[in-house]
Amino acid sequence: MMGNIPFEYGDYLIIPRGIIYQIEFETEDNRLFYVESFAPFYTPKRYKNASGQHLEHAPFCERDFILPTELETHDEKGDFTIKIKKEGMMHEVVYATHPFDVVGWDGYNFPYGFSIHNFEPITGRVHQPPPVHQTFETSTFVVCSFVPRLYDYHPKAIPAPYNHSNIDSDEVLYYVDGDFMSRNNIEVGHITLHPKGIPHGPAPGAMERSIGHKETQELAVMVDTFRPLMVTEEAMGLDDGQYYKSWVE
User: Fold this and answer.
1) Is residue 194 classed exposed, middle or buried when 0-12, 13-18 and 19+ CB atoms within 10 A define those classes?
2) Residue 186 CB neighbour total at 10 angstroms
3) C or N terminus of the chain, fewer CB within 10 Å?
4) What pTM was computed for the model?
């Protein structure tokens, strides 16, 4: 309703609640990873100054944001169905005029895009913890971007991540593209869930395979929630029943 936001492979779209939107695709083969939130999305506080501007050491800046352009005003009457999600239910409301009848707008609450390819990875001589990949945050979860990057470059560094337990968050990983060094039998489009408190890390052989490698071409999105995730029956139906066995040699 505020203008067009062109998007392509690898783009995040941040759409605030209450914004009427419509997504149009140029191809039929599309995959979307939705993350819904009751709280607003922000960029990490540690990458901004007191005025809210991104600092020079931030992995991206305001120039990377894709803002609404080409405001198209539709002055039409008819039956226009608007779908509204409330309390987990989808409701339909019929407008008598086109919802995109805006001739201009002002304010600070608007949708925007950001390409994961513009996220500049933070690397180090030894393994960097997941917060260096953080891209967005809310009051209940964070979103991280794993992008092509150099591996740890200490002579004795082991590029594979260490085994760990997430004490304060459930971890969801959406594998977008590339070779996922720490996992076995993970394909593009897979989604994994590591509940808080359960140790996990490289699959058998992954640590050894990583030694000597200089870089990774993986592309993935991670969502760490501060409260436990409730797995739906539909999600259980998508479970391949094999992932938990990937740590068995």
Assistant:
1) buried
2) 19
3) C
4) 0.92
